[in-house]
Specification:
By secondary structure, the chain is an alpha+beta fold. Helix content is 47%, strand content 17%. Strand 4 and strand 5 form a beta hairpin.
Length: 276
C-alpha cells in the first residue's frame, strides 16, 4: 500500500520536516556521487553492531567479485576490512539515520516522511519535533543493535525515525484518513483508508517480518526491528507527552472540502467535543 496524501491540514510550515528531507537528500547525493576508491559513507557512518559492541574491532566482510580469466569470467570471494568509522562507533546510532541504500530506499522513506511528518511537527512544535525525530532514530538503531549485537552488516536508513513519526501520527490523529494506492491483482485502486488501520497494518507487517528475520538469516536484509523500535518509541513518547498536555492541540477541518480550519483546544486524551 502506497500512501498518496492525508486529509489533515497543518497550521504551520513544517520547516524541520523539510530540513530532515533536505539533509537526507544531500547525504544521499554525496553517496551516489562518490568517486571509485573513496571511502564508503555507509562504512564510515553506518551503524555496525559489531563495531559498537567493540570499538577496537576490525570488521571484515566477504565480497563476491567477477574476475575475467582465460577461461571466462569467474566469480571469486574476497575478504577485506571495512573502512574505519569516521566518528565514535556509538554515535553511528544517529549518523546512520541520514544514509540510504539505494534510490527506492531513499524515495520511499522521504515520501512517507513528507506525508506524515508535517502533522506531527504541527503538534510537537519545531524544536520539539526535531528532538522527537532524532530520539526515534536513535531508539530504532538501539533496538536493532539489541537484536543483532554481533552483526557486521552496516545498518542505514531513516526508516526507524520515520516509523516513530508514524507511531505518533496514529495516536495523534485517530480520525484521519489516508488516500492510498492499493494493487489488487493486475489493477491499481485508490481508496481512502482510516489512518490507524493503514499504520496498524504497516506495523503488523514489520512485526511479522521481524519474526521471520529472527528465524532465518536469509531474511535479514532489512532492519525490521529498527522499524518496530522506532514505531513503539514514537507511540510511547507521544502518549506520555500528550497525557501531560505537553503537545499543541489538534487542528481539523470543519467540514469535508472546506478550507476553513478550527483549532481544537480539547486534548485527544480527554472527552472530545463536537465541532459544528
Amino acid at each position: 500500500m502506497l500512501p498518496l496524501r492525508d486529509n489533515i491540514p497543518s497550521r504551520t510550515t513544517p520547516v524541520v520536516n523539510y530540513l530532515m528531507i533536505a539533509i537526507c537528500s544531500l547525504v544521499f547525493f554525496e553517496q551516489v556521487n562518490r568517486e571509485p576508491g573513496e571511502p564508503s559513507l555507509v562504512e564510515q557512518y553506518g551503524m555496525i553492531p559489531a563495531r559498537v559492541s567493540d570499538s577496537g574491532a576490525t570488521v571484515k566482510i566477504v565480497e563476491s567479485r567477477h574476475v575475467e580469466t582465460p577461461f571466462g569470467i569467474q566469480t571469486t570471494e574476497l575478504e577485506r576490512p571495512l573502512a574505519p568509522s569516521a566518528v565514535p562507533p556509538w554515535t553511528t546510532l544517529l549518523t546512520c539515520v541520514f544514509l540510504h541504500g539505494g534510490w527506492m530506499h531513499f524515495f520511499g522513506n522521504m515520501w512517507f516522511l513528507w506525508i506524515f511528518g508535517d502533522n506531527v511537527e504541527d503538534r510537537y512544535g519545531h524544536l520539539g519535533y526535531l528532538i522527537f525525530y532524532l530520539f526515534c532514530g536513535v531508539a530504532a538503531s538501539a533496538t536493532h543493535f539489541a537484536a543483532s549485537p554481533t552483526s557486521i552488516v552496516p545498518t542505514i536508513g531513516a526508516s526507524g525515525a520515520i516509523a516513530g513519526v508514524m507511531g505518533a501520527y496514529m495516536l495523534l490523529y485517530p480520525r484521519a484518513r489516508v488516500l492510498t494506492l492499493v494493487p489488487l491483482v493486475v489493477f491499481l485502486h485508490v481508496i481512502s483508508v482510516p489512518a490507524p488501520l493503514f499504520l496498524g497494518i504497516w506495523f503488523l507487517l514489520q512485526f511479522y517480518q521481524g519474526a521471520v528475520a529472527s528465524a532465518s538469516a536469509g531474511a535479514a536484509g532489512v532492519a525490521w526491528w529498527a522499524h518496530i523500535g522506532g514505531f513503539v518509541a514514537g507511540l510511547v513518547l507521544t502518549w506520555l507527552l500528550g497525557s501531560k498536555r505537553k503537545l499543541r492541540p489538534p487542528v481539523e477541518r470543519i467540514r469535508p472540502g472546506s478550507d476553513r480550519m478550527v483549532y481544537s483546544r480539547v486534548s485527544p486524551w480527554s472527552r472530545a467535543r463536537r465541532l459544528n
